[in-house]
Write a structure and sequence with these properties.
InterPro entries: ABC_transp_perm/SBD, MetI-like, MetI-like_sf
Subcellular location: Cell membrane; Membrane
Family: Belongs to the binding-protein-dependent transport system permease family.
Organism: Rhodococcoides yunnanense
Distance between the termini: 16 Å
Domain ABC transmembrane type-1: 51-232
Strand content: under 5%
Helix content: over 70%
Largest sheet: none
Amino acid sequence: MNRLRRAPLDVWFEPIVIVVLGLGYILWYRSTTLTTTEQASLGWDNLKTTIVDHIVLTLTATVIVVVIAIPLGILLTRDRARNFRPVAVNFANIGQAAPAVGLIVLLTMWLGTGFRTAVVGLVVYAILPILQNTIVGIQQVDQRTIEAARGIGFSVIRTLVQVELPLAVPVILNGVRTALVILVGTATLSTFIGASSLGTLITTGTTLFLPKLLISGAVLVALLALIIDWLGRVVELFATPRGVA
């Protein structure tokens, strides 16, 4: 509770934005006239399935990225692997440098359509922020702190787990938050390769010229991104060791 009282302004301000945007959308939705197609797409049964599919796609890609990027980032900060760091970072940067649509199309030619291809595309696209932040977070730990831990008998692994990683947590989690927000937005493109997501509302609204459906899809994606960003910020706040933040 003390941490919540001392929380930065953004931790309190972002939920207000989420509530205002959510209430505004609900009021607009209740007051507007929808076509049959819009009513079918925005009916709760269909909308719930679409939102769940979007979240599952995003979280699946996030878990895979975290499992790959954080251990790899840790490895690249060790003396024996530092020479490989520029190669690994530049390779991870390919996903950010390439247009998301082009990347997904290329992967579709190789892996076909569907959920698996969408996940692979999202992983490639979002790996850089977590990898880069893991490296930066561990590198910024004061070398004197590491030497002190080693001096009192900590092993290399124990120093990493009990000293380096806790001190690097804020930077690493910031990278995870960034990747999550990127993934929420980019996941909308999965609809082009047959994976269900909120992008279905956007593409259907564009194709059939149904602006209300298009607006609904865009607002729901924005709300989901804001909610996930806020939850990540709260986790970052509580996971940061006392005295580091």
